[in-house]
Amino acid sequence: MIELAPNHKYGLAIDVPLMPASGAFGYGDAYGDLVDISGLGAIVTNPISLQPRQATQGRRIAVHEDSFVVHTGWPNPGARRVIRDYGATWERLTVPVIVHLLANHTSEVARAAALFSAVPNVRAIELGFTAAASRKRAVELVTAAAVEGDLPVIAQIPFDRVDDLAPYLARQGVDALTLTAPPRAVLPVDENGEDPGVARFGRGRLYGRALFPLLLNTLSRWAVKLPVPVIACGGIASPDDALACLTLGAAAVQVDALLWRDPSLLDRIARALAKPRAAYPAVTHLLSPNEPETEENV
Amino acid sequence: MDQAPEAGEFMLADLGGPVREALFPSTPVGDGFDTVVPPGHGATRLLPGATVDMLGPLGRGFRLAPTGYPIARLLLIAGAESLPLLGPLFQAAPSVVLVVEAATRAQLPPPNRFPPTVELTLVTRDGSAGYLGPLEAEGAAPAGLERAHTRLVELVAWAERICVAHDPSRYPALAALVKRVRLQPHADLAQAIVRVPMPCGAGVCDVCRVATPRGERRACVDGPVFDLLDFLPE
């Protein structure tokens, strides 16, 4: 049993340190028989706002080599409709549901958190911030979710704000941290031969294997220093990747959009994580987690 | 392959990229299917005999008729570049009329590509061959040319089912034409396929959202074949 919210009155205990990342798995039932949900530690919903949101117009994905960017605008039917459509499904699940809220306005987060706290088997709120959110704003949003929702609050930290936000929010009472949200990036669009010679680009959330070493770097620097559990997210594409994150101090891992290519990835990681800890492979890293970075050792 | 996709359904193929790519059937072949992909598509880099991991069949395909109630008159409407999406329907009814629209004559497919039972109606937007397009344009045609619209109205009135594969920006106008001709069209009388990237195939990623006057739909689970009248302007 892994406790992801040891400082919260209800806690957030999970059996397996594995869950799909927000935006990668829908609202719980999309993959049907392709994924054994009971083998996961929890599910994290797609991002949800209080009011319905529509998708962005135009191209929403750009694929280049081994990476891709996605820009959808996080369309969703709004908190009440999601509860109506999926509440019964969540209640039947044998694993906890973590609702991911889009954290834009304090009042909206508060109202949405209050709504979801009344839904059976919703056991935590994960907040996603905009990259521009100030520390003060982030704390206000976490506080709003915690006070109105009465559930453990996990903060998903923007990729380039870890040094700034993660230790600060941990000190301010967030229950756990997800490191990290996908970075923003621009990729050239592979047009399958259309308009040869004309470069086009897509901007959005970046996914791909290249994120994994960046995640390990973040974990090696922060996971054991932070006073709250850390959930690792970014480029995890194999059981060994997940084990490496746990070895570097993560309490659990989230699998992001890479599972779209291989939904069975979740089951394979779940099986690997079910083995006793002693069977985890040793991970060799060049820099110990507490060793300061210098020109010599970086 | 356990089950081949029907017309309008798709398979998600792992072609080595970071996301899967949709493959639509153009012709059923034994237990499998032929597919047509654009130049540069990941499938073009496959070597003969390569094994491809596929998920599917996925999506909501063309719905011709309930079992036991076969239709007799099927109208297919395609843009030249989308024509392969309708391939599995070429022999789906005793009487099939296929309307193919292209920008110019050179983009029209050769007639010998189709089964002899398919009645072809060719349309070019520059009038270089067949009827003069665009399909939904009314009005007088230049001397020596005949508007496709007149013929299309006849065919829409004649058909028991209408299946469309074209540029989705044309769907509102085509839906309006069907509504004008058939007055009280029943559900699924006219259906249209939308081809957009569908990286997850499970309704998760929201990349494939299609805007209609009746709200957003997800191509991978709500479609990719929709009721054409869903695109009817309100």
Helix-strand makeup class of chain B: mainly beta
Taking all residues together, what is the mean pLDDT of chain A?
90
Rg over C-alpha atoms of chain A, rounded to the nearest angstrom = 19 Å
**Amount of beta strand of chain B:** 25-35%
Give a verbal description of the structure.
- The complex is a heterodimer of chains A (298) and B (234).
- Chain A has 298 residues and is of the alpha/beta class.
- Chain A has a single domain, classed as Alpha-Beta Barrel (TIM Barrel).
- Chain A has seven helices and 14 strands.
- Chain A has helices spanning 79-92, 106-117, 135-149, 162-171, 211-222, 239-247, 264-273; strands at 2-3, 13-14, 18-20, 43-44, 61-64, 67-70, 97-102, 122-128, 153-157, 176-179, 184-188, 201-208, 230-233, 252-255.
- In chain A, helix 2 runs parallel beside helix 3 (135-149), helix 3 (135-149) crosses helix 4 and helix 6 (239-247) packs across helix 7.
- Chain A starts with a strand and ends in a 25-residue tail after the last helix.
- Residues 282-286 of chain A have low confidence and may be disordered.
- Chain B is globular, with a radius of gyration of 18 Å.
- Chain B has helices at residues 148-158, 171-182; strands spanning 10-14, 21-23, 27-29, 32-34, 53-58, 73-79, 95-102, 118-124, 131-132, 161-165, 190-193, 209-212, 215-218, 225-227.
- In chain B, the strands form four sheets. Chain B has a seven-stranded mixed beta sheet, with helices on one face. In chain B, strands 2-1-5 form a three-stranded antiparallel beta sheet, with no helix packed on it.
- By secondary structure, chain B is mainly β.
- Chain B has two domains: 10-58, no CATH class; 73-194 and 225-231, Nucleotide-binding domain of ferredoxin-NADP reductase (FNR) module (Rossmann fold).
- The model of chain B has no long low-confidence stretch (mean pLDDT 92).
- Chain B is 10% helix and 27% strand.
- Chain B has two helices and 14 strands; from the N terminus they run E-E-E-E-E-E-E-E-E-H-E-H-E-E-E-E.
- Chains A and B meet through strand 6 of A and loops of B.
